[in-house]
Amino acid sequence: MDNILSWIIWIPIIGMVAIGFVPRGQQDLIKKIAAVTTGIQLLVAVMIWITFNPTDGSFQFMERAEWIPSLGIAYILGIDGLSLPMVALNALIAFLGVFVSWNIDRAVKGYFALFLLLDTGIMGVFLSLDFFLFYVFWEVMLLPMYFLIGMWGGPQREYAAIKFFLYTLFGSVLMLIALLALYFACGKTFDMLLMMERAPFALDGVVWWGMSAIKVIWVLLFIGFAIKVPVFPFHTWLPLAHVEAPTAISVVLAGILLKLGVYGMLRINYTMLPDAVWWFAGAFAVLGMINVLWGAMCALAQKDLKKMVAYSSISHMGFLLLGMAAVIAGGAANGSNLMAAQAGINGAVFQMFNHGTISAMLFILVGVIYDQAHHRDIEGFGGLAAQMPVYSGIVALAFFAGLGLPGLSGFVSEAMCFIGAFPVFRTIVIISTIGILLNAAYFLWAFQRMFFGKLNEKYTGLVDINRRELFTVVPLLAITIFLGIYPRPFLDMIKETMNVLIDQVVIVGGIAGIF
Amino acid sequence: MSNLQSLSLYWPELILSGTILLAIIIDIFSESQQSKKVSNWVTLGLLLTLIAVAITKHSPTTLFMDTLAFDPFASFIKSIVIVATILVIVISRNSNEFKGYHTGEYYALLAVMVFGMFLMASAIDLIMVYLSIEVVSLMSFILAGYLKNNPRSNEASLKYVIYGAFSSGIMLYGLSIIFGLTGTTNYFEIRDAVKALDGSADLALTIASVFVLAGFGYKISAVPFHFWTPDVYEGSPTPITAYLSVAPKAAGFALMIRFFNQVFVDGASLSGMGWSSTVSFSWPQLLGIISVITMSMGNLVAIQQSSVKRMLAYSSIAHAGYMLMALPTTSSEGVFGIMIYLVMYLFMNLGAFFVLIYVIEKEGGETFEHFNGLGWRMPIVGLVMTIFMFSLTGLPPTVGFIGKFYLFAAVINAGPAFYWLAFFGALNTVVSLYYYMRVVKAMYLTGEPSDVIAVPSFSMTMIFLLLAIPSVFFGIYWVPVLGWVKESLLLFVQAL
User: Fold this and answer.
1) Contact B395 A143 (CB under 8 A)
2) Closest CA relative to residue B366, chosen from B298, B442, B299
3) Which residue intervals define the domain NADH:quinone oxidoreductase/Mrp antiporter transmembrane in the entry (chain B) (predicted)?
4) How far apart, in whole angstroms, are the C-alpha atoms of residue B352 and residue B241?
5) What is the rounded CA–CA span in Å between residue A344 and residue B457?
6) Which residues, 6+ apart, have CB-to-CB distance to B385 below 8 Å?
7) For a 10 Å CB count at each end of chain A, is N or C smaller?
8) Measured between CA atoms, how close is B397 to chain A, in angstroms?
9) Which residues of B touch A183 (CB under 8 A)?
10) Spatial distance between the Cα atoms of A415 and A404, rounded to a whole number of angstroms
11) Residues A213 and A206: beta-carbon distance below 8 Å
């Protein structure tokens, strides 16, 4: 059990090296290696989940090794209630992603090698507790993503890939500047635990060109992370990248990559710059509202099913931002409403996880129909319910999860976000609820157009969802239903860490408070 | 030190001179046209020189009546120059651009150029500065025009001569103003005299510095003294292009570091902290602005190129801009960052050019189209080129990122007054991604998986790996480089 976090990060690299030695012709062997590798990773993740101590809100399974001592860079890993669900989600999505990619037949070796590299990059971001290491993993993730979209994507793949790359790199370099500023402010260390302790006080009262240093760093970091989320107006790369990427990569993009932005904000912005949370919470709420409404309205207008799902992601991330803004309800100025703060933050993290499973499911389902029909035009279908009954049933459930039907997990987390944000941002929450209505509208409308009515003559040859595809969807569906009915096990795992986070914002941010 | 004493610390240069003379003699008696013998001899001589550089140790001092400095910093730059030269000699032997030319004197000229750069690395006297720049320039003119049957190579040489003559003339004028103001050519005496002027001659000093900067800027191709770069880089034999983009640039930066950080800065020792400028005119701001203009211009124009060779020419302008970013910080961190970057830049830029040489040979051209589908047809070449492109962009885990990281760290550490530099540097990184990725895109995103796979010859593969492996390894664990640079960050300084 020693170094279990290192294992979960580096296992995919072992698989990648193994794939490197397989002759190019043996495609099946390559796929099997990828499946076994991610399978082992999933088992390790389950082990961590079981042995994780939910009553402890601090970091567990810590690892520490010297790397570049003269620069204060170390190899530090640790896991808490914030990263645990993300690690589990990533392991699950990566494992399912291999099976979603089973039909890839072009340059298979390269595809799975890059896929595993991507897996390592994402795991690394969630587990590093050294800011430099965090940044390296953050960037390493971009390289395979560029190739995976650019080489195996749809007709506009080259444009989508470079746009994705440019957008995220823009965010990253701003983050690099913020990182260096924090590094020097905190006494030349990249150890995130030390930075969390020192940064709120070290930067207190520092002014750069008439602006508070805390605000400047916050904004730089925020832009870096907001591009990943994506927060309006940094979202324009997303629909394109999602639509052009091959199915499995869309699944990873929606399921995990978007969460990295939120994870970064909660891990870094909230803990290192707690004062600025107070300053920015209002903007968070407003941006969340815009995301909810803008994403939903764009989704309503889409003719391409995959694009519709992509925009629905933007909308769902908006709920999450509202939940994150709710943390300030815990402050004295807002009546020390700790319940609301807890509901909001726990809801946001829960929403991260739920959106990960639901959107992954939606993208897989889009891929299923696309593989057979070779198009995704919502209007082009019709009456599929009779032709593909099992598929229709699963899509119905997935759509219901997406629109937040009670009894499915999405409802619980969205409701928590709203409940948390309501006491502080009443008007904004009320307006945002229109988004729920819009969500229901486009999902149901799309469902109606695709599955009801007269069957299109062209599609009498379509066969129902096959066993491999079922295997990729059912686990996600099961999680969605289970957590929809009984969210307690999940919330218990993250609760203590969220309390620590709220304390950091409310107490530390309150003491040092300059706003 | 007196002249005679100096000789005992001058072993590397003496070996180098012997190498040059013998190379010429061997060339006369050598019969083969390709002159393998000469290149073997020059390589051997350079290796001996490198060993001599490494083992000649002495506390920082001056040689030949205070005209040259002898310090670890000079040895550092000399080592970079020698390594670059040896690599370029190896690639020149493997390149077929020189087919039909007698190449004996080519290698001898390269060795002379190395000598000039040795002088540049240690010059602390205005006369020596001028002479060393001229030695390097004259050799570059000839080498750029080495393909005498190729009109573009001739054009390159001619343009280079005109620009070179022009900018060294301006520099000489600037040097003479400084001499007129201070009555001496020695850096440290100038520093003391300038300080004694106490701001009374700021205008004259500003003008003189700008003029001197024309000469330095020309050597490192900083905007607006860069106009020769694209055409010369494009027309020269590609190995020479690779060479010009690395070695003289390193030597040029050495000159600039010495000039600005020794003449205008009052620091007891360069390893110390908290220097201050001894003059009141704002040369750091001037350098900062030149840095931003240089990187932005280089990057923006590189985007529009259709030839990879020209693109790399503009990209090397941009990299000069990044390095210039750290110079105005007047801190040992800044010099440290530049030194790290020079090491990292050596690997990635030479690597990119060497792949280009190979592609020109195999595909018959240097445009982006010639790279189409290369990753499928030649997996090894595609992979190493991808590493070099990522590295030039500055993405981890490659050396390019580590180099940029130290530059940015130096700038951020210098305080809020310099943050705008870091900001522009960061934006430029994003811009540069676009055109470096064009190469990667051509190699992988166009074209189809192919069953016919070409593998470069053993020696080419070795050269590629020799540059690509450090490009990644030092990106993950760069402590060895760090240690070397730290030891070398010691410049000779005379107390004020």
Assistant:
1) yes
2) B442
3) 123-425
4) 11
5) 62
6) B352, B355, B371, B374, B439, B440, B443
7) N
8) 7
9) 409
10) 9
11) yes
C-alpha span between B127 and B135 (Å, rounded): 12
Q: What is the mean pLDDT of residues B330-351?
A: 91
Pair B26, B108: CB distance under 8 Å: no
Highest mean pLDDT among A1-5, A330-334, A455-459, B464-468: B464-468
Residue in this structure with the two tokens 């591009």, named with its chain if needed? A227
| Pair type for strands B61-63 and B68-70 | antiparallel
Task: State mean pLDDT over B324-343.
Answer: 90
- Closest residue of B to A158, CA-based? B445
End-to-end CA distance of chain B: 19
What's the rounded Cα separation, in Å, for the pair B180 and A295? 70
Nearest-CB residue to B396 (from A106, A139, A208): A139
Q: Assess contact for B75 and B495: CB atoms under 8 A.
A: no
Three-class secondary structure of residue B489 per DSSP: coil
Tokens matching residue A126 = 């969630």
CA distances to A341, B16, B105, B114 from B42, in Å: 73, 9, 11, 11
Cα–Cα dist A354/B291, whole Å = 48
Taking the C-alpha atoms of residue B442 and residue A503, their distance in angstroms, rounded to an integer, is 51
Q: Which of A105, A141, A173, A234 to substitute to test the interface with B, most B CBs within 10 Å? A: A173
Q: In Å, what is the CA distance from A91 to each residue of A95, A200, A357, B43?
A: 6, 34, 12, 53
**Distance, CA of B214 to CA of B224 (rounded, Å):** 8
Q: Which of B429, B444, B445 has its CB closest to that of A173?
A: B429
Element (H, E) at A374: none
Structure tokens at A261: 């932005």
Mean per-residue pLDDT for B244-265? Answer: 89
Is pLDDT above 90 for A336?
no
Nearest neighbour of A177 by CB, restricted to B396, B412, B449 = B412
Asked if B433 lies within 8 A of A208 by C-beta distance, the reply is: no
Which residues numbered 422-461 in B keep a CB inside 8 Å of some CB on A? 422-423, 426-427, 429-430, 433-434, 437, 440-441, 444-445, 449
Residues in chain B closer than 8 A to A151 (CB atoms): 444-445
B133-163 confidence digits (pLDDT tens) = 999 999 999 999 998 888 999 999 999 999 9
CA–chain centroid gap for B164, Å, is: 16
Any alpha helices (H) in B394-457, and if so which ranges? 399-413, 419-440
With pLDDT > 90 as the criterion, what percentage of chain B qualifies? 55
| Rounded mean pLDDT, B78-101 | 90
All residues at 6 or more sequence positions from A491 whose CB lies less than 8 Å from its CB, including other chains: A346, A350
Give the pLDDT of residue A172.
92
Contact assessment for residue B330 and residue B256, using Cβ atoms and an 8 Å cutoff: no
Say if CB A500 and CB A193 are below 8 A apart. Answer: no
- Contact (CB, 8 A) for B177 and B207: yes
Place of tokens 């080419």: B460
Which positions ≥6 away from B344 have C-beta within 8 Å?
B391, B399, B400, B402, B403, B474, B481
Residue B69 to residue B77: CA distance in whole angstroms? 12
What Cα–Cα distance (Å) separates residue A411 from each residue in A270, A421, B237, B310? 25, 15, 67, 57
User: How many angstroms separate the CA atoms of A508 and A499, rounded?
Assistant: 13
Ranges of each domain in chain B: 302-496
ipTM reported for the complex, 2 dp:
0.91
Q: HEC states along A52-70? A: CCCCCCCCEEEEEEEEEHH
Average pLDDT over residues A348-355: 93
Amino acid at B299: N
